[in-house]
Description:
The protein is of the alpha/beta class. Helix content is 43%, strand content 15%.
Amino acid sequence: MTKIALITGATSGIGNACAKRLAAESYNIIITGRRADRLRMLQEELENMHPVQVLPLTFDICDRKATEETLLNLPEKWKNIDVLINNAGLALNLNTIDEGNLDEWEQMIDTNLKGLLYVTRMVTPSMKSLGRGHIINIGSIAGREVYPKGNVYCATKYAVDALSKAMRIDLLPYGIKVTQICPGAVETEFSQVRFAGNKERAIKVYEGYKPLTGEDVANVVAFAVGLPAHVNINDLLLMPTAQATATIFDKNI
Ligand code: NDP
Ligand code: 8X3
């Protein structure tokens, strides 16, 4: 039977690459994000390239009511989700704790932490009743090490680490796997979002070395979901070869 994967944040970067990779593996895919035009284009691309079905769902994961309503009212044939990829997330700015912007802090917490919880809460009951499922949480090196001016973003990713461990314990009796994948630097729209569209500043983040791509992360996700039922990757830190820690890079500049 064709498996179903739900990917949050499929309009860009890692989520977009995961949608393409899992469609190539013949998953039917639920793609989500706030940008409806991008979701429509991705649906068309995937359905043209592969014999799969794609359900685009446009909603903001910070909006609890919209998230609940959308996921509670999934069409019948999309209800039994096999793989949930909690990917949607963002960093906003870099500031010391005394200078941080409260709106930016709230948006990071609402998206990376509360949004992930809202989605997980809606999807796990059906996994539990089926006695199977796989949740992939996209954490970060920022959830392993705190770096200067990363405070709140790092805190949200430390929270994803804690929640991944907690989910694994709570869902253990139901055969549901929980995998946390923590990338280092991945060249996506992440830094453009972090620096509010300042492309020059965003490009600098990836200068002088070869960062990961969304496809690199998607390949690891596909490997993790393709493992036999009795095998799980609990936690995986994936770095560009040129990156040793959150802040130490081998750059040729
Ligand atoms: P992108 O900015 O390229 O993609 C982020 C995705 O998240 C977009 O599809 C965006 O969709 C979605 N998103 C953001 N906010 C919301 C929201 N409120 N509601 C619904 N969807 C939302 O960044 P990445 O692909 O790099 O980021 C994906 C994940 O990977 C994030 O959790 C990030 O923290 C993590 N990560 C990234 C790393 C990197 O270096 N790039 C390294 C480690 C982890 P839309 O705007 O259409 O809503
Ligand atoms: C994204 C990577 O180092 O910018 O999570 O926090 S980093």
